[in-house]
Amino acid sequence: MAKATYEVNRNIFQAKALQWAQQFEQACFLQSNDYKDDYASIDAILAVDASEIFESDSHTTFEKLTIFKAKHSSSWMFGFFSYDLKNEIESLETSFPNPVGFADAYFFIPKVLIKFIGTCIEIEAEKPSQIYESIAHYSATDSIIDFKKKIKKRFSKEAYFNAFHRMMDHIKRGDIYEVNLCQEFYAENVELDPLAVYTRLNAVSPTPFSTFFKANDKYILSASPERFLAKRGDILISQPIKGTAARGNTLHEDLEIIHALENNPKEIAENVMIVDLVRNDLTRSALPGTVAAEKRPQVHTFKQVHQLISTITCKIDHAKSDIQVIKDTFPAGSMTGAPKISAMRLCDQYEISRRGVYAGAVGYFSSNGDFDFNVIIRTILYNKSSKYLSFHTGGALTIEADPEKEYNECKLKASAILKTLNTELE
Fold first, then answer.
1. Where does the source fall among the domains of life (predicted)?
2. pTM higher than 0.90
3. Between residues 42 and 194, the one the model is more confident about
4. CA atoms of 325 and 231, how far apart (whole Å)
5. pLDDT tens-digit readout, 180-222
């Protein structure tokens, strides 16, 4: 592919590029919303139209994807891993239906790649100048979100409390010591403009791992704040989130909430437990003695919430392929609990809906060998053909958990999506 660089009005060109991309069956837009950390790599990137596609048939997905990636080792590759791939990694089973209809994994090699770098864009394509002209002269239109439904809860409050107490029984017996109990919110017969919803969601809740992903008639509209796993050279990085508090109404309130969160024994304990789990997962792919908790846990502030985030790194064992590294650490420990397999088995038992793409990961493999994947949380999943819309929220339960507080935390995590759709829970 050829490359060309242009200076543009970033906001105008980006809006046009996203609308222009909707004519294609595949599109992936990733943006950091100007959040910076030691491992940030891209400001924003748009991948459009597929020259090659990988779609899981729910059998030996990681092995087949390893072969697919090896064939395209010098190319960028964008896609997602569904949480339900856990069933291929461990002896687990998900019995609930799949109403959103996503595959267990989906990746594509783009024909067009647009990198947003400050006030410039870099276009990689067969004919970059034609792509630039097509977007520059594209007539962007405003679209409204006309969502007139209320969101249904898969769990009633009573059912959630019942599942909570069953999980607590397992914690008291020592079967697990932490578990992430999740619940689905959904709406049926929904007609909406996915790009308009994503644009609004990103305005309501700008996050470092914001994602718009289109695979034919299925959409991932994500305001995820959490990095699952990244590779920078020979370093692997995971940044699990555990610990959440609402934003204050004033700066003084915010500072008090931050101080309370970073000194909250329950929230810190949850975070430390997941750090230990992630460290254990990373040892499978690390050179001996290189796994380290670089930063733990620190409060990061987002538009809707404060979160406790830890950073764990290691040097990669180059005998491991990138896909094997992801398999060794998947799914994200922050979305399972500990011990990991036992927690996932109990989630299958007491949750009453399929997580699917939720709690999985979406991101990219770059042409230089690096990769970066988020954890799919704070995310709307939408099937335009079946008109089904879904999102999940969840929270970590430990021995000190309180059911009312955990239930309210789930609603807090749903607040940005409800605000985006201008609706409320039924």
1. Bacteria
2. yes
3. 194
4. 10
5. 999 999 999 999 999 999 999 999 999 999 999 999 999 999 9
Q: Who contacts 100 (Cβ-Cβ below 8 Å, separation ≥6)? A: 218, 356, 357, 381, 382, 383, 386, 388, 390
CB-based contact 179:347 (threshold 8 Å) = yes
Indicate the SS3 state at residue 396: strand
Q: From CA 161, how far away is CA 391, in angstroms rounded?
A: 20
List of residues 6+ apart from 173 with CB closer than 8 A: none
- CA 32/CA 398 separation, integer angstroms: 32
**Active centre residues (catalytic):** 226, 242
DSSP assignment, residue 286?
A: B
The string over 225-262, giving b where at least 16 C-beta atoms fall within 10 Å of a residue's C-beta and e elsewhere, is bbbbbbbbeeebbbbbbbbbbeeeeeeeebeebbeebb
Which token pair is 300?
A: 């990061």
Q: Label residue 191 exposed, middle or buried (CB < 10 Å: 0-12, 13-18, 19+).
A: exposed
Residue 359 to residue 83: CA distance in whole angstroms: 5
Q: pLDDT digits over 260-289, tens only?
A: 888 888 888 888 888 889 999 999 999 999
3-class DSSP assignment, residue 335 = helix
Phi then psi for residue 2, to 5 deg, are -90, 160
Residue with tokens 């991932």: 220
Contacts of 250 (CB under 8 A, 6+ apart): none
Q: Go through 17-55 and write b for each residue having 16 or more CB atoms within 10 A of its CB, e for each that does not.
A: bbbbbeeeebbbbbbbbeeeeebeeebbbbbbbbeeebb
